[in-house]
Write a structure and sequence with these properties.
Radius of gyration: 27 Å
Number of helices: 2
CATH class: Alpha Beta
Structural class: alpha+beta
CATH topology: minor pseudopilin epsh fold
Oligomer: single chain
Number of strands: 10
CATH architecture: 3-Layer(bab) Sandwich
Shape: elongated
Distance between the termini: 80 Å
Largest sheet: 7 strands, antiparallel
Strand content: 25-35%
Number of domains: 1
Length: 173
Amino acid sequence: MANRIFSEKGFTFIEILIVLFITGVLVSIGVNRFAQSGAIAGYNGEITRMFDTLSYARNTAISQRKEISMVFLPAGTATFNQYEVRAWDGVSSTFNRISDTYDIFQGVVCSASASDTLQSVDEIRFSRNGRISLLFNNSTIAAADQDASIGISVTSHSTSNVLTVLANSGIVR
């Protein structure tokens, strides 16, 4: 009888291993989901911040009646990892930075190109009436066609989105 009581007490080693294995699988799924949610939040935040910055540049150009630029850094490359807003100083004929320099969220790839030329855009310049002109290769300024648009592609992992700036009005969509 003593043998029988001893054999019915507790769990076997195999049962404990199975429970630990199932727990480990569930924890690894949760950690993976948590890591993905941080990347998605960073991507969505980048889209929102870029949209807000473009809208700010356009609205400032119209309200202050000066040329305002959104500059993508580094210039002359297919993708950018920073951007900032600059205002035209009519006295010294230079553009002065009027916003922070924003770093692109890690893991997000951004590029800007004109729809009519497919060239990489270094700068979007908003005029006093809100229309845009573009800076290519850090030197060539071209007024955008009325039907043209500038696409700012924001990509992260398997997600992609394009912000569009309409040339004739400067409206951001």
